[in-house]
Specification:
Blueprint: E1 4-9, E2 15-16, E3 32-37, H1 45-51, H2 85-91, E4 100-105, H3 111-125, E5 131-135, H4 140-149, E6 158-162, H5 166-176, E7 180-184, H6 201-218, E8 221-227, E9 246-251, E10 258-266, E11 274-280, E12 283-286, H7 290-295, E13 305-312, E14 315-327, E15 335-338, H8 342-355, E16 363-369, H9 381-393, E17 401-403, E18 406-407, E19 413-414, H10 419-428, E20 433-437, H11 441-444, E21 451-455, H12 461-464
Parallel strand pairs: 4-8, 4-9, 5-6, 5-7, 7-8, 13-17, 15-16, 17-20, 20-21
Antiparallel strand pairs: 1-2, 1-3, 9-10, 10-11, 11-12, 13-14, 14-16, 18-19
The protein binds thymidine-5'-diphosphate and magnesium ion.
Length: about 475
């Protein structure tokens, strides 16, 4: 059969049959690389599926929507709880037996550490099963020494292999019959069906789709690690997100111990869930009450700080927002923001200038979300503005006040979602007052024991701080 050649952009995954100097999709220069696809009969998805068909199980994919005791997807009902409550939360209530999870993140953030702990936790709740951990980037000794450090208890039920050839991994799967397969990492594996180097777009795609087939036909939970690369030189996890069931991203500042695990996509649960972990000398441990962690270093009644209750998935989180305004020596004032989109900050400052008479256009503004969290929720508008205003007029906000509200371009304060949950969390952490949209006062009154202050327009903000 004829071999096909294609040129794939290594940054965005665009492919074409002829070489181009510039990728028409993402505009990257010199990013197209020749990739050969060996076209053999075995290359079909059906071949992989046949290889792993579980004997005795139905081959038909046809059932009725209402069929309850169908054994086609046992996953949804038989979730196994992992070792960590935070991890269960991001997975939507535990691990699905044939779920395919992609976990992305910067190198060194703690992905391999988490997966060893996942393997250990899985063995604790499923002592009769097996786990296969395949590493393409570390030696067996390295993994063993990490396992010692993590005090992995079930090390005799976890098979370890150092391998980069996908076909050989499949043989290992046949040999060890695992219920959980961990592949670390995506960019190091390659299949013989494609000639290009490991980590190129076509390899990454092919490896992922073959693993997906393995997960579904042999009913194995597969966890795949993908490094996020900034320069796009190696194809990253973004390119295969659409193929997998669940996409988790591991974030955190280098040098800090807090790690955030975020659900970007989940066929078995909510997206935007957030798990909070701490990296300790014995691996990752759950942070049971993240709000108190985010607020732990807060200084009392400081100028330029305000607290907001933001929703991360189904969980409310209290976060401190900080603003520093200093008179600008230049015609164009500086705007620097960490954790809040700079476009958003530009809008908020313009609304403040226009509707709250804050002389912000001749001030440099530095904005920060404490604890390294990234905020994208409109419900944080009012608190961000309160922090900026407090810095401009040099008046501290009482440390027991929380702000909630979206602000429109005309300065009106709009409703936020799930207000009761947010107020409850504030009350739990000992806050005494919530400034919230006037239109939601009635709904919020259900929560007793915290004083509520309604606000209709940002022009009133000055009198509330
Ligand atoms: P690792 O899991 O190797 O990261 P990744 O697989 O995402 O590249 O973790 C790397 C960092 O974690 C490393 O700098 C050391 C740190 N670490 C701890 O702080 N405590 C531990 O118990 C372990 C195993 C690692
Ligand atoms: Mg690793």
């Amino acid at each position: 059969m004829k071999n096909k050649t294609q040129y794939s952009c290594q940054s965005c995954g665009f492919s074409t049959s002829k070489w181009l100097g510039r990728c028409p999709e993402c505009g990257g220069w010199n990013s197209l690389v020749e990739e050969k696809i060996v076209n053999t009969k075995d290359n079909s998805i059906a071949a992989v599926r046949d290889q792993f068909q579980v004997p005795g199980k139905t081959t038909s994919n046809l059932i009725k929507l209402g069929d309850e005791n169908s054994n086609l997807r046992p996953g949804f009902s038989n979730r196994s709880i992992t070792h960590s409550k935070e991890l269960d939360r991001v997975l939507g209530g535990g691990m699905v037996p044939d779920g395919f999870v992609l976990i992305g993140g910067d190198p060194g953030i703690g992905k391999s550490t988490l997966l060893l702990q996942v393997a250990d936790g899985f063995m604790q709740s499923n002592p009769e099963k097996h786990v296969l951990y395949v590493s393409g980037e570390e030696s067996l000794e390295q993994i063993q020494s990490r396992a010692k450090r993590l005090k992995i208890e079930n090390s005799n039920s976890i098979f370890l292999a150092a391998e980069t050839q996908l076909e050989k991994v499949f043989n290992l799967v046949k040999e060890t019959n695992p219920s959980l397969l961990i592949m670390d990492s995506l960019q190091t594996f390659s299949t013989g069906f494609i000639e290009s180097a490991p980590g190129t777009v076509s390899q990454v795609r092919e490896v992922t789709s073959r693993l997906m087939n393995l997960a579904k036909s042999a009913r194995i939970a597969v966890w795949l690690v993908g490094h996020v690369t900034k320069d796009g030189a190696i194809a990253g996890p973004k390119i295969v997100e659409h193929l997998v069931d669940t996409v988790l991203y591991f974030e955190g500042e280098q040098g800090q111990t807090m790690r955030l695990l975020r659900t970007v996509k989940n066929r078995f649960g909510n997206t935007n869930e957030l798990g909070v972990f701490e990296m300790t000398s014995e691996g990752l441990s759950d942070v049971a009450n993240p709000s108190s962690l985010f607020l732990s270093e807060r200084s009392q009644e400081a100028v330029g700080t305000a607290i907001v209750a933001t929703m991360e998935g189904s969980r409310p989180l209290l976060v401190e927002l900080q603003a520093l305004c200093v008179p600008s020596p230049y015609g164009t004032p500086r705007r620097t923001s960490v954790g809040l989109d700079s476009q958003k900050l530009a809008i908020l400052t313009a609304v403040l200038e226009k509707h709250a008479e804050a002389p912000i256009l001749n001030h440099d503004l530095f904005f920060n979300v404490a604890g390294g969290l990234k905020l994208s929720e409109p419900a944080c508008d009012l608190a961000s503005m309160a922090a900026i205003l407090s810095s401009i007029i040099e008046r501290p906000i009482p440390s027991s006040t929380v702000f909630l509200g979206e602000v429109g371009l005309t300065g009106e304060v709009r409703k936020v979602s799930q207000i009761e949950l947010r107020i409850d969390e504030a009350k739990k952490l000992g806050f005494k007052e919530v400034v919230l949209p006037w239109s939601q006062m009635d709904r919020a009154k259900k929560t007793k024991g915290i004083s509520l202050v309604g606000i209709q327009h940002v022009s009133e903000l000055r009198s509330k701080i």
